[in-house]
Design goal:
single chain, 3 domains, mainly beta, 8-stranded antiparallel beta sheet, 341 residues, 28 strands, Immunoglobulin-like
Length: 341
Amino acid sequence: MQRSTTYGVFPVMQLNMMKRRAIAFTFLLFASLATGMLHAQQTPAPYRSYFFDGDDIVFEFDVRLYEEATHDRTNRHLDFEDLDIHDVAVSGEFNNWSRDGWKMNQVGPYRYQLRKRITDFNDAPTWQFKFLVNGMYWAEPPEDAPNRVVTIDNWFFEDIYNLELNTMGPVADGNARFFLKGHLQAKTVILTGTFVHWDEHRIRMEKQADGWAVQLNLPPDHYEYKFLVDGEWMHDPDNPRKVRNEHGTWNSVLDIRVPVRFRLSGYPSAKQVFVAGTFNDWDPGATRMTWINGGWSVQVPVPGGKVLYKFIVDGQWITDPANPIREHDGHGHINSVMMAE
């Protein structure tokens, strides 16, 4: 009996201890999971202020990445955690910095998105933009934002997002070389233009034996530029392409183009096929295509941004059957659309 009682009590004590340990372990497990869930809530997933998704450009705003905002009119800074956010909009060069902007949709507890068709834009994605909160607070881009850029054009746009051109600077093997002959007595020569929003300090040219030079890596687009020689503005005397500016002087012009291959499958019995569009002023006979591998093909240098085009098969104009993106031109015609980058 004694033996039986002794062995009967010990297992009960052991069981109680195991229960206590199990409860403690369970508590720690849930605490760990809760901490992990909280951390997951507070730590945003990989974030981009914009990205391309098929035929769309998607703008994205994540509240957790912002620390402060600037009031639209008073320039007063406010901590983001003090903002009661009820709407977020995208505002930029593409909508004339509208205070109403393009309203974004809330897609999560912290994230907002706005999806726009590529055809909604008339040029290459090199514009600047910011996020506007509650119609009056400009969200300041995070310091480590991949496409953040600083500008001093307007006081409340000091920190903005700038697609593609935010890292503009001299590149040894860049695709665009700028050269100003002579002026060897000058102390500094600055290159500026639309590619840096006419910044008068960013791009310093290097002195050479016979002049000043610098190379940049420019996305395909139409650019205007000038030189600043010891503070004096001048256009490029060796570039015959120039346009009048608002000051009554000249800006030099540079077009950077990207090679694009147009292809039309089929039509084996066609005698001649051409492609025409905004890249060749819609000249129906300027760009002839060649029959190869079961279709008609040609590679053409085109400017960056939106390109409108059509094929001309034995005199008949047709849209690209392989490209579903099309738009009306306002004159009763439908054109195929592509975005060249």
